[in-house]
Amino acid sequence: MSETKRIGFGKKIRAEWLAVAIRLRAGGYSYQQARTELESIVSATNPGKVAVAKSMSNIKQVVFAPAEANAEHSSGGIRIFQDLGDCSSLAISWGLAISAYSFVAATAETIGRLLKVQQEFTSTDLKRRLTEKLGERGFVQRVARYNLSSFLDWGIVANQSGKKHYKRGRSIRIESDELVAWLVEAVLLASEQSGMAFNHAISSPLLFPFEFEPVAAAIIGSKNPRLQITRESLSEEQVSLCHAQTKRQNA
Q: pLDDT digits over 44-76, tens only?
């Protein structure tokens, strides 16, 4: 994990907060213009000056103030929301969050991998896998708890019989190839890779909350101007970030 990349949520972040923030940004609001309304919504269920400040910082960084490397991706997500409306808000929230915060991405990928091999997992399973990947850092268990509680609020993970066992939540059906292409870009940004095999990107554990029809690499490339598709062999295609391709060509 990059030491210079933002880490993760400092509190549970509710789906409603991000949905409102995305709607406001899509309506032309800056963070300062949206701040009063967002603080009112956050404080209604998460009172306390420090708690509100932490939540607002996360909302700002996910929706209004992406890292410079993610700025075009963030703007692209807002344009998709303007076209598709509220039905896309959770997918847009997901793509913005995993690309904004490396630990949110690590938590999401770990849950996705666990759910590929078993029907449920425990918080202990999750924290053990994250510790194996990231080391015994003090923030791991604390931030993992906030990320998991956020995913529970978003409905993509569900409690199993009221115990500390978790299962897959609702699957979000995506009909828009443009939105799928944007999520593939989010996978590359979250994975901190300039490119990867297309089959790996489209089936990434990071996309575990979503369902969509099989889509050709060429269509994904045509739907997102920031992606480039190249053929590595007769059976393998590569998807890359265009700016990374340009850097390699100019090196």
A: 998 899 999 999 999 999 999 999 999 999 999
pTM: 0.92
Tokens for 199, please give them: 């089959």
**All structural domains of the chain with their residue ranges:** 15-101, 103-168, 173-250
End-to-end CA distance of the chain: 25
Integer Cα distance of 200 and 187 in angstroms: 10
Check if the beta carbon of residue 203 is closer than 8 Å to that of residue 183. Answer: no
Q: Is residue 50 classed exposed, middle or buried when 0-12, 13-18 and 19+ CB atoms within 10 A define those classes? A: exposed
CATH class, domain 173-250, is alpha beta
d(CA 150, CA 69): 25
Longest dimension (CA), the chain: 58
The dihedral built from the CA positions of residue 75, 79, 80 and 84, taken in this order, carries a sign that is positive
Q: Give φ, ψ of 201 to 5 degrees.
A: -65, -45
Q: What 3-state DSSP class applies to 14? A: coil
Strand (E) or helix (H) holding 199: helix 198-202
CATH for the stretch 103-168? 1.10.10.10
Tokens of 202: 């489209």
